[in-house]
C-alpha cells in the first residue's frame, strides 16, 4: 500500500495536504513521489483561513482609521457648538459599533464555512481509502457516509478527482451494488409464510358443527314484514272506527256474565241512531 494523500486547493493559491494511510509509517515527511497516491483532489473557491483573517484585519483597520478621521474632522469645525459636536461624535461612534457587530457576524460565518470545508476534505479523503484497500465489510458504511457528504457539500467545493474513477475501485463498487440490489430483490420477492391448515372436521351425527367441534344451531327463519302492518292508513272525516274485539259492544255483551258490568260499560254512539235535532 503506498502513501495515500488528500489535497485541497484554495482560491488564494494555497494548498492543504492530509496523509490518510501509509504502509511505511512515515510521520512528518511524506514518502517520495514515486510511492505516493492521491486519493482525492478538491478545490475551494475562496481563500484559506489565514488569508481570510489577514484580509479582514486589513479591512477593519481601514474602517477604524476612517472613523477616527471623521471624528477629528467634526472636532476641528469651529462653526459648531460643543453640544452639537458631542452629538455628531456619539452618532459616528454608535454607527461604528453597529458596523462592528455586523462585520463580526459575517466574518464568523465565513470562517465557519472555511473550517467546514477543511473537515469535509479531510473526511472525504479518509472515506476513499476503504473503497480500495479495506475489507468488503467496510465498503458499505463508507459508501453510506460518502453519499451523505456529497448531499451536504457546498457548491463552492469542487471534487476534481478521486479514486472512484479507477478501474479496480469502479469494478469493486459495481459488484457491491449488484450484490446489494440482488439481496434487495430477494427480500422483496420472498413468499409470505402460508397460514396453518385448519383441523380436520370431526365425525358426528350429521348436525352441522362449528370450528371447535360443538353442534351448531340451525339459522332462525326471518319473518317477513308486511308493508300494510307497518303503514297506518289515515281515516276520512266522518268515517267510523273499524270494529274489533276491544270496541265491539255486542261481542263484549256475549262474553259478559254479570249484567252490572254491562251497565257500567261506557256508552258508544255507534249502537244507536243519532237523536233528531229539536
Any overview of this molecule?
With 278 residues, the chain is of the alpha+beta class. The chain has a domain of 187 residues. 48% of the residues lie in helices and 10% in strands. It is built from seven helices and four strands. Strand 1 and strand 2 form a beta hairpin. The protein is flat. The C terminus is likely disordered.
What is the H/E string? Answer: EEEHHHEHHHH
Shape descriptor: flat
Range of strand content: 5-15%
Stretches with pLDDT under 50, minimum 5 residues:
224-232, 267-278
List the helices and strands and how they pair.
Blueprint: E1 3-9, E2 15-21, E3 36-44, H1 49-76, H2 82-132, H3 139-152, E4 157-162, H4 167-189, H5 227-230, H6 249-255, H7 259-264
Parallel strand pairs: 1-3
Antiparallel strand pairs: 1-2, 3-4
Helix pairs in contact: 1-2, 2-3
Features:
alpha+beta, flat, single chain, disordered C terminus, four-stranded mixed sheet
Summarize it.
This protein has 278 residues and is an alpha+beta fold.
Amino acid at each position: 500500500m503506498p502513501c495515500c494523500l488528500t489535497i485541497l486547493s484554495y482560491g488564494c493559491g494555497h494548498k492543504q495536504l492530509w496523509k490518510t494511510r501509509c504502509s511505511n509509517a512515515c510521520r512528518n515527511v511524506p514518502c517520495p513521489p514515486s510511492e505516493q497516491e492521491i486519493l482525492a483532489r478538491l478545490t475551494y473557491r475562496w481563500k484559506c483561513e489565514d488569508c481570510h483573517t489577514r484580509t479582514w484585519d486589513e479591512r477593519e483597520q481601514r474602517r477604524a482609521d476612517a472613523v477616527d478621521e471623521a471624528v477629528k474632522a467634526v472636532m476641528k469645525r469651529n462653526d459648531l457648538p460643543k453640544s452639537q459636536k458631542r452629538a455628531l461624535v456619539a452618532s459616528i461612534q454608535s454607527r461604528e459599533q453597529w458596523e462592528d457587530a455586523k462585520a463580526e457576524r459575517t466574518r464568523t460565518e465565513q470562517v465557519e464555512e472555511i473550517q467546514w470545508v477543511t473537515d469535509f476534505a479531510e473526511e472525504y479523503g479518509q472515506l476513499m481509502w476503504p473503497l480500495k484497500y479495506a475489507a468488503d465489510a467496510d465498503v458499505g458504511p463508507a459508501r453510506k457516509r460518502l453519499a451523505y457528504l456529497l448531499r451536504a457539500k457546498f457548491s463552492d467545493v469542487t471534487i476534481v478527482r478521486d479514486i472512484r474513477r479507477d478501474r479496480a475501485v469502479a469494478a469493486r463498487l459495481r459488484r457491491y451494488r449488484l450484490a446489494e440490489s440482488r439481496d434487495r430483490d430477494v427480500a422483496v420477492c420472498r413468499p409470505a409464510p402460508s397460514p396453518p391448515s385448519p383441523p380436520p372436521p370431526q365425525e358426528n351425527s350429521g348436525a352441522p358443527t362449528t370450528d371447535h367441534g360443538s353442534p351448531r344451531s340451525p339459522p332462525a327463519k326471518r319473518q317477513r314484514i308486511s308493508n300494510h302492518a307497518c303503514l297506518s292508513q289515515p281515516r276520512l272525516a266522518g268515517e267510523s272506527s273499524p270494529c274489533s274485539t276491544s270496541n265491539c259492544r255486542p261481542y263484549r255483551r256475549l262474553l259478559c256474565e254479570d249484567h252490572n258490568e254491562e251497565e257500567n260499560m261506557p256508552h258508544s254512539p255507534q249502537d244507536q241512531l243519532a237523536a233528531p235535532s229539536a
